[in-house]
Structure formats: C-alpha cells, structure tokens
User: Which sequence fits this backbone?
C-alpha cells in the first residue's frame, strides 16, 4: 500500500476555474496532431482490454488457434460462433463463482471496519485535546510508507497459534491493520477542515462526543468517507498478496487467487482465463465508474493505494 | 452456491456488527467512569482500536522481523548477520536488486512524463472528449494487477513457430517476417523486465494523469496571461510558468509511484514469478518465505527494503509538519 502526503495547494484544494489552462481560451482548441495523439494513446489503452473481452466470448478452438482480431477481420465467419459458455464454465466449474462470493465476504468488512475505526480515531485527533496527540499522529504519518511485508512472518506465526489462518477474519484483520494509517490520515485531514464552531455549539447543547460523532461529524464527512471507502474496497477486492499469505488457495480464496491459478494451470485455454479475468473486473469497474468523482477527489486529496 | 451466499451474508454482518458493538461497549465503559476520568480517557478510548491495529500489524511485526532477520530459516537459533551476507553475496539477489533499481529508475519517471503529456494534450480537447479519453486511460486503475497481468500476458502470448499466434505482439512481429518470440523469457538487456513495466505503466498512468490534470487546471489563468503578454512562447509558458506551479504535484506522483514500485509484487508474480531474470524484491521475499521456507532470509529482505523506504518516511513526516504549520 502506498500513500503520499500531498504537499501543494494545487493538489490539496484544487481550485477549479473556468476552462482554459495552458493555452488560450480553454478546451476545444486542439489541432489535428493533438487529437491524433490522444486518439492513439486511447487506442493503446483500449485494445488490450478489447482483446480479452472478445476472446472471452469465443469457442475453445477459435480462441486458441486464431487471433481475436480475426473476429473483426472475418466477422461473418467468427461472430456467429461467439458464445457465453466460457462464463458459465468459469463460474460453475473453474471456481470463479464461489471465489467472487469470497471476495465480497473479504472486501465488505475489510472496507467498513477500518473506516469505522479510523473515523473514531480521526475524530479524537481533530476535536479532542489529550497529551501526546501530535506525537501519536506523527507516528501514524510515518507508518504510511512502511511495507506491509514486515508483518507477514510474525503475523503468520501468530495466526497459526490462534488457528485463524485461512479464514475471512484473518484477511479482514490484516486489511484493517494495513489500511489504518492511511484511513486515519485522510479522515483527520478532512475533519480538520470542518468548522470548529459546530462542535462547540453541539457541546453547549449538551451533546456527548459519542452523539456528536454519529449525528454531526460522520454525516458531514461523507465525501471523505466515500473516497476512502472506494480506495479500500478496490484495494481489498484487487489484493492478491494479503490473500495469498493469510487466506491462501482453497475454499475461501478470493477471485484474484482463482484467476491467478487459472493463468498458472498448464492447458487452461485463453477463452477461460479471459472470461475469469473479465468476471473479476466487472464489480470494481462498475463501482469505479459510478463513483469516479469521489475517487478523483480522494486522489487529489493527496493519497493513493497501490 | 445458495448455502455459500447465506454464509457470506452472515459473515459480513457478523464482522461489521462486531465492530459496531466494540465501539458501543468501549464508549459505555468509559462513560461509567467518574466525570473527570471519563473526559481524560475518552480520547484514548477512541484512538485505541486504531493504534491497536497499527501496533499489531506494523509496529510489533517490524520489530520482530528485525530480530528474525538475525535468526535461521525456522527461527530457532541466532545466526548473526549470516542472512544478510548470504543475500548480498548471492548473484541472484544482486540481479534482483539490479532489476529493482531499473524499475525505480524507469517507472516513476515515465509515469510522471507520460501522465503529464496526456494531461496537457487532453486539456486541449473539448470537455466531452477530454472526459472520455481520461476515463479510458484511468480505467485500468480499477482492476487488479492479476487482471492487468491477464491482459498483458495475452498480448505477449507465444506459440511455437508453425502454430498460429494468438498473442497480439507475436502476430504483429511474425507479420513483419520475424520468428515467434517467447517475449517474457527474453532477458537480454532486461528486455522482459521492460515488458513487465509496460503492464504497470498501463495500469498506473491514469493516476498520474488525473493528478497532473487537476494541477494544471489549478494554475491561475492570470499567470499564463501575464506570460503571454510578455511575449513568451507556448513552450516557455509551459516550462517557466506552469511547471513551477505544478511542481508539488509532480513530486507527489513521483514519490507515490516510487514507493509502489519498491513494494511491487503482484504484476511480476503473476506474469513471470520472477523467472527469466525478472525477479524483484517483493517476489523474492514471497518465494523465500513460501518456497524456500526461509523466515530468516525473508526477514532480512524486508529489513533491507524498510531501510530503503526510511528516507521517504522522513520526507513524508517533514511534508506533514510543513503542512500543519501552514494550516
């Protein structure tokens, strides 16, 4: 996981102005060279994905003996042969179906729980006074870049002592631990931009910290919560390493491990591998596209996981 | 499958419910204390779970890993610095380090440069085309490294000569009269490592582009106009006026991608598993731990990696302090 403290004003609070940045008068002033270059770059980005998308609908023989581009070169020959059978096979026989459910079982709590924990901590760091507050927060900032590899050997030993290796909670706890410093960091940064007077008036009205947190601060922090939720969900859904180490292949394996084993198996055809790959991408892509605004806001707030 | 669905729903609810109950209880417990103590202890009750998680999963393991790196493969006896000397004198590990250096030299720089280029170009398009092209390039950010590796392994796929080529690269290569090449096995001049880097670039440049784009749009028009009035060329405006104002973002992207690359695991693991001289620290660590079952060697690799990350950690803390001072 990766996180960076964004140092600039331009990033920290993107002051959007009317269009027009480097050149004169803003968008729509591209010449053909610019348009052509962007088009070419987009093609480079898109073509690989089209390749696996098309292949995932082809028959075993077609996919493994002819290139996927033949579908476009000889549409009358290959298009009628397209099939959704690979998806049924991937879900039913190749184990992608159960693996998708496992991914949900891992990713949802591994997203929700760290946000809850981090929101409480961020609240305390922002709105409460206590000795050692700043030092403790610097500890969190410095933990942002520590490689989570440090945890693997000791935590594996710990997990096997308490017999939770290979279970969903084993993965949740690991994701909670590895995502925590970034979550506290993002949420605290956001909360400290909220007006302090609101807290003061809530206190005067006799609200406890617990009430202020749930009724006031949490609803006001929704943009930051959503931004981090998307990061954490994509991160846990797409994670391979933590899953390999703490869950491992087997009944509880998430979809990343399932697709990876399909790739590694000798003799698995491309039609099945690509179908599995596409299935693993659908949910994150849908979430990403529908919540893109929050995601970008989270990025420009100075953080990313990778 | 229906049983599985019910189990999944139950597990999710149990996990989430347990977390909520913990906080409710924690709050109740503190509220039972006398008023003075309640106020004193409440902040610590609120940050306790967060710190417990960080302590258990990062601080304690980091210390323990440090000690394990001086112990043998199954952590039963002390071996001094043997794990380190073994690593640093091993030809394989030296190649692994060299590969990592290549990744660190090439990837962050390329990510910044290409991301900046796309951001500048897309900024000149009509808003509609700009959004569409940016979304397209950004989209691989959403998918897993396993997904990206599937996509690119298919591009680099190889069949022996005489068989039809289903991989795009070999199809193009043979169309121009070349013999089919097992691309990912070509380690001359680390060519296959470059092919792996392409996969990461494909997946990551969207991130760079989005940040650059936001920064460029944040450059005040007046500064650009002023440059134009003074007769600066478009390129001079870009170099002298825009670049300095987005420099902070450039550094952010550079640092972020550098950390990502230093800790990289999945793309190389899925595409070559470090074979054909493409090994990197993350994959080497994983294989020391799970293939060689060498706790000591694995721990030593992590300690070296952590040492390499410390300068970035110091930089981050400094940035944070400066930011707080400006608040």
Assistant:
């Amino acid at each position: 996981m990766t996180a960076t403290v964004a140092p600039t004003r331009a990033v920290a609070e993107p002051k959007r102005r009317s269009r027009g940045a480097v050149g004169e008068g803003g968008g729509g002033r591209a010449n053909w060279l610019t348009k052509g270059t962007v088009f070419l770059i987009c093609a480079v980005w898109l073509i690989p994905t089209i390749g696996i998308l098309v292949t995932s609908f082809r028959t075993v023989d077609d996919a493994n003996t002819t290139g996927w581009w033949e579908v476009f070169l000889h549409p009358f020959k290959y298009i009628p042969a397209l099939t959704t059978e690979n998806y049924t096979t991937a879900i039913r026989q190749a184990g992608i179906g159960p693996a998708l459910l496992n991914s949900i079982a891992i990713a949802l709590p591994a997203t929700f729980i760290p946000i809850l924990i981090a929101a409480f901590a961020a609240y305390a760091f922002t709105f409460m006074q206590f000795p050692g507050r700043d030092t403790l927060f610097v500890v969190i900032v410095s933990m942002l870049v520590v490689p989570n590899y440090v945890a693997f050997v000791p935590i594996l030993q710990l997990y096997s002592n308490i017999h939770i290796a290979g279970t969903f909670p084993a993965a949740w706890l690991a994701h909670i631990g590895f995502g925590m410093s970034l979550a506290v960091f993002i949420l605290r940064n956001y909360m400290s931009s909220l007006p302090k007077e609101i807290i003061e008036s809530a206190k005067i009205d006799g609200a406890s910290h617990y009430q202020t947190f749930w009724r006031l601060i949490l609803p006001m922090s929704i943009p930051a919560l959503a931004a981090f939720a998307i990061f954490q969900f994509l991160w846990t859904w797409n994670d391979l390493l933590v899953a390999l180490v703490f869950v491992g292949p087997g009944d509880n394996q998430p979809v990343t491990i399932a697709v990876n084993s399909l790739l590694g198996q000798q003799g698995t055809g491309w039609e099945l591998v690509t179908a599995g790959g596409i299935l693993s991408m659908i949910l994150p892509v849908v979430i990403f596209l529908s919540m893109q605004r929050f995601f970008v806001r989270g990025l420009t707030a100075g953080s990313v996981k990778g | 499958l229906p049983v599985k669905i019910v189990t999944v729903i139950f597990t999710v609810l149990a996990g989430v419910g347990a977390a909520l109950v913990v906080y409710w209880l924690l709050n109740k417990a503190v509220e039972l204390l006398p008023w003075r103590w309640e106020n004193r202890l409440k902040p610590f009750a609120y940050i306790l779970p967060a710190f417990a998680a960080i302590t258990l999963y990062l601080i304690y393991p980091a210390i323990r890993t440090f000690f394990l790196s001086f112990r043998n493969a199954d952590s039963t006896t002390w071996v001094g610095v043997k794990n380190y000397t073994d690593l640093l004198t091993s030809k394989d590990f030296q190649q692994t380090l060299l590969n990592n250096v290549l990744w660190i030299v090439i990837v962050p720089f390329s990510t910044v440069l290409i991301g900046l280029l796309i951001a500048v170009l897309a900024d000149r398009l009509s808003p509609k085309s700009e959004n569409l092209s940016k979304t397209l390039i950004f989209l691989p950010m959403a998918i897993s490294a396993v997904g990206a590796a599937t996509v690119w392994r298919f591009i680099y796929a190889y069949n022996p000569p005489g068989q039809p080529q289903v991989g795009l690269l070999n199809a193009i290569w043979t169309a121009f009269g070349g013999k089919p090449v097992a691309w990912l096995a070509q380690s001359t001049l680390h060519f296959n490592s470059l092919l792996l880097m392409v996969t990461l670039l494909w997946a990551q440049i969207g991130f760079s582009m989005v940040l650059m784009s936001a920064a460029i749009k944040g450059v005040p028009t007046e500064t650009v106009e002023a440059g134009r009035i003074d007769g600066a060329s478009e390129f001079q405006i870009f170099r002298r006026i825009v670049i300095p104002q987005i420099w902070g973002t450039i550094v952010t992207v550079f640092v972020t991608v550098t950390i990502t690359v230093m800790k990289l695991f999945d793309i190389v693991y899925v595409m070559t598993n470090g074979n054909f001289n493409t090994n990197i620290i993350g994959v080497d660590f994983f294989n020391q731990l799970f293939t060689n079952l060498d706790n000591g060697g694995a721990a030593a690799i992590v300690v070296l990696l952590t040492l390499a990350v410390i300068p970035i950690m110091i930089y981050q803390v400094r940035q944070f302090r400066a930011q707080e001072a400006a608040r």
Notes: The two ends of chain A are 5 Å apart (CA to CA).
